[in-house]
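Re: the request from the purification team.
They wanted to know what the chain is likely to look like in 3D before they choose a buffer screen. I agreed to run a prediction and write the result into the notebook, where they can find it.
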Amino acid sequence: MFIKAFSPDHFSNNNQPLSEIVKISAKGLVDSSLTKRANLYAQILEDYVPAPGKTAVHTIAMTSSDKYGFNRNGDGWTTENLKRDHPTFVKHAKVFRHHNNTSSDPSYGVVKASMYNEDMDRVELLLELDDSKCAEELALLEKKGSFPVSMACRIKYDVCSICENRAKTAAEYCNHIKNSLGQILDDGRAVGVDNPHSTFFDISRVIRPADRVAYTLRKAASTGIQGGAKLAQELGYTLPMELLLESMPKDAAERAEILAKLSDMEKRIDGVMTPHVSTLTPEEKEKNLELAKKLSSYANSFELDKVMRSLTDNNILLSANEYVTMMTGSPMSGKVAAEVGSYLTNLYTQVDSLGEDIVKSSMYTPADMAVGGKINDTINDFIPTRQLNSTTFMHGGIAHSAKVASCGTIKVGTDAKALAEEYARYQLETLRNVKKSCNVADFDNKLFLSILFNTVQ
């Protein structure tokens, strides 16, 4: 799967203004000169009138590569694909700023309608912008005839125009795309990629227009154009949760929803949460590590699912060092533990950027049947210090602190980062199963406790 970014001015459009305010009253278009340009309204929204406090904007989003060729990034969308896929602008895309397109980010407008203009071979959009939120954008539109935007879509794969190689990731690109994207071969063929099966999900006003970023990339690399996938990466695009969930199995989708909520909570409390410290004595920490070593004999003899079932049934969340000890039989070294601890302070925000990779599969799925015996006896000994409830965490292991030493200057190595990310996978699967026995308020409290726990390890 790819995310591709582009700007409307990456496409040939006969030098027409890309966006234009359309003044509409109950009687129709106020400016008759816009009638031809705004055939979108006549064909799709004959009786449309903007809601109070909203302004209608007509935008030429993109053109067909069948007629106009590839855009400046070497990306193309055929007429057939655009006709099929342009409605996803309406279904999924909203107007944002700076590609902040999560459910908690403010939206500045919506896509009321889209169409494929057969005469001009292009996709046109009707945007409805909020007058108060978009005062700056509307002023630029009135004064300069445009404001800089970039757009994005998700594609399943792209196809080389020369060898028809299908690439689902940049690692699968052929040499034509790696080395000659945007060039014209001796036989007259243009090197580019076709983007079938697109889902359009973002329209963002940006400080630096997308083509400026593309120019910066081209200049820095000096190896030709970089393509829409590279541009999307440079602009920091991520897939909205609703699209991420669509293609996932149920358990992965549940982990993704939990991760999104944790990341959002972590961002909102960052810098305002009262500092806390662990109050466990060295003896208690050592006891927990010894318990984790006992669990490692089961975890490494094909009984990890039973260990996970007992842990989640008892609402136990192990610390990172206890988790590593359970999985390997040994605790982390002091250096690695310090690096992991530094990474944990903003764990969910950092791993959220990994998207599907962090949630798509898990080796920590619990057993179907409840577990007793020695496994459960060992795990019961964690309850006084590691049970995921406020009584245990706030009175048995964590306390308020006037000041906590900062770990921000610690450089996190590759091994420590990989351990922290795997620990996040363990936490997400634990929380997914703990959720089954919680009401909404109780689970939100457990999510907060897990964030707090990560700051004191």
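For the purification team: The chain has 21 helices and 16 strands.
Please add any questions underneath this entry.
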